[in-house]
Design goal:
- The structure is a single chain.
- The two termini are 22 Å apart.
- The chain is an alpha+beta fold.
- The chain is built from 19 helices and ten strands.
- It is found in: Cell membrane.
- Keywords: Cell membrane, Kinase, Membrane, Phosphotransferase system, Sugar transport, Transferase, Transmembrane, Transmembrane helix, Transport.
- It holds the Pfam family PTS_EIIC.
């Protein structure tokens, strides 16, 4: 039961990150639009800047729908296009039903001087409904995916065949969405109160709250569940609520993007920004850790380690994808990972404590572009550089000290192996040493074709669900040329591949003749 719950949470975490990936692109173009609208820009560029901003605002103001479709498509195990279409319709059904029920029961809130702000309701796609924000998209997306996966294969006799398949799951969804829409009219105000209390606790505990959040956000990465911590704080009311330019925004990242769009009138950034600074470790921490790992490698293997670590460092610092680097030392020493997480928390706490207000969600590119629209007096970016240099030095020496003192087997420090690596050949069960392709290693490591239930991926990980965990051979998986780490959790198997994981997964699925999850 525990393993199944963990797998469910990981699947949800993977699904949630799908729409989040596109937020970075939105932020980039939003920053470009702001720059194009600066006073010294030619009128034609200012006009195009305004058009781009309008486009980006349409995405920012409709995240619930985007999350709904993205989560459904990601969680659907089959007929993904039909599942995505059903989720769009179900989302509209919810809005219509919830609005109708609020109207019928005289629960519609009256707009005040600040509109519906503070009433617990909002206007979504023209419907006044309970204000669930991104949580609405998550809820409907999960409901649709669950019912679609269970009932979309149900077929009927010929004259009723039009009601079979995905149409049958759609039929089931109609009453489910209706009941859900009515129920949320009463349930969500209570949940919203809990969210406000939790958010208030984190926000009012000051530096302690920043420390706890920062530590958990880094420490949970090996489980793949860290998205469940930072994503709600960045994209829902859990991270805070602010009214900017007459529009209400929820979540640290959303609020910052709205401030970017109104940069000319912003003199200070909303305090919710404390939840959107974890890019600091991706930039400064990654560089320091990489240099420490290279320094501690055996002399005869330094060049080999450089070839492995430097590309991972570049991806982490520039693009904000740290997993290839993280898994290069995490399995060698959980203690190093604990220290890494603590240094991350200390760094972000210091930054907030001394007044730095710099948005850092991803890597150098996103950090530079996003903050460039504000004056340095607003972001205090110079404090980030100062703390970054100091903490990088500390990070470096702490890692070097621990690795050498405890003789931790980080890359380039492993004991030399004299025996030749072997591989179980799936076709005849014999051991060979013929340098078989990654595909053969994947199949053998997962216990054979028949043992593979589903295959999917996130940013950098190949995620596989197997039928029998006893058949999994981690030693085989660790011989995959592209792998940077293997995580086993019951029937859930994760192979860390890196940024090329999407193509890697597609190739594996094609060879196996399996549909992609």
């Amino acid at each position: 039961m525990k393993s199944k719950f963990s797998q469910t949470m990981q699947d949800f975490s993977r699904a949630v990150i799908v729409p989040v990936k596109f937020m970075a692109v939105m932020g980039l173009f939003l920053a470009v639009s702001v720059i194009l609208q600066l006073e010294f820009m030619p009128n034609v560029l200012q006009t195009f800047g305004g058009l781009i901003k309008t486009m980006m605002d349409s995405m920012l103001n409709n995240l619930a729908l985007i999350f709904c479709v993205g989560i459904t498509a990601s969680l659907a195990k089959k007929k993904k296009v039909e599942a995505a279409l059903i989720s769009l319709i179900a989302f509209l059904f919810f809005l219509a039903a919830n609005n109708a029920w609020l109207t019928l029961t005289n629960q519609l809130a009256e707009a005040g001087d600040m509109g519906l702000f503070g009433t617990g309701q909002a206007v979504v796609l023209g419907f006044q409904v309970v204000d669930m924000n991104v949580f609405l998209g998550m809820l409907v997306g999960c409901i649709v995916a669950f019912i679609h996966n269970r009932f979309s294969d149900k077929e009927f006799v010929d004259f009723l065949s039009i009601y079979g398949g995905s149409r049958f799951s759609f039929m089931i969804l109609i009453p489910v969405i209706l009941v859900t829409a009515i129920g949320m009219s009463y349930i969500w105000p209570v949940v919203n109160g809990w969210i406000s209390s939790l958010s208030g606790f984190i926000l009012t505990t000051g530096l302690l709250g920043v420390f706890i959040y920062s530590f958990g956000n880094r420490f949970l990465i090996p489980t793949g569940l860290h998205h469940l911590l930072w994503m709600p704080f960045c994209f829902t009311a859990l991270g805070g609520t602010a009214k900017i330019g007459g529009q209400v925004y929820n979540g640290a990242a959303n609020i910052f993007y709205a401030e970017m769009a109104n940069a000319g009138s912003i003199t200070s950034l909303d305090p919710s920004l404390r939840f959107a600074t974890f890019g600091f470790v991706k930039i400064f921490g990654s560089i320091a850790v990489s240099l420490a790992l290279i320094h501690c490698a055996k002399k005869q293997r330094k060049e080999e380690v450089k070839g492995m670590i430097l590309p991972s460092m570049f991806v982490a610092a520039v693009a904000g994808i740290t997993e290839p680097l993280d898994f290069s030392f995490l399995f060698a020493s959980p203690l190093l990972w604990l220290v890494h997480s603590l240094l991350t928390a200390v760094s972000e706490t210091i930054l907030w404590g001394i007044g730095a207000r710099t948005y850092m969600l991803y890597g150098l590119i996103d950090t530079f572009v996003s903050n460039s629209v504000f004056s340095p007096s607003v972001t205090k970016f110079y404090l980030v550089i100062l703390v970054g240099v100091i903490m990088s030095v500390i990070w470096y020496f702490v890692f070097v000290l621990l690795i050498n003192k405890l003789n931790i087997k980080t890359p380039g420090r492993e004991d030399e192996e004299s025996e030749e690596a072997v591989l179980v050949n799936e076709t005849n069960g014999e051991f060979t040493a013929d340098g078989s392709a990654d595909f053969d290693l994947v199949v053998a490591g997962l216990g054979g074709r028949e043992n593979i239930e589903s295959i999917s991926n996130c940013f950098t990980r190949l995620r596989v669900t197997v039928k029998d965990e006893a058949l999994v051979d981690s030693a085989q998986l660790e011989r995959i040329s592209q792998q940077k780490g293997v995580v086993l959790n019951g029937t859930s198997v994760q192979v860390i591949i890196g940024m090329g994981v999407q193509g890697f997964k597609e190739d594996i699925c094609e060879r196996l003749g399996m549909s992609e999850s």
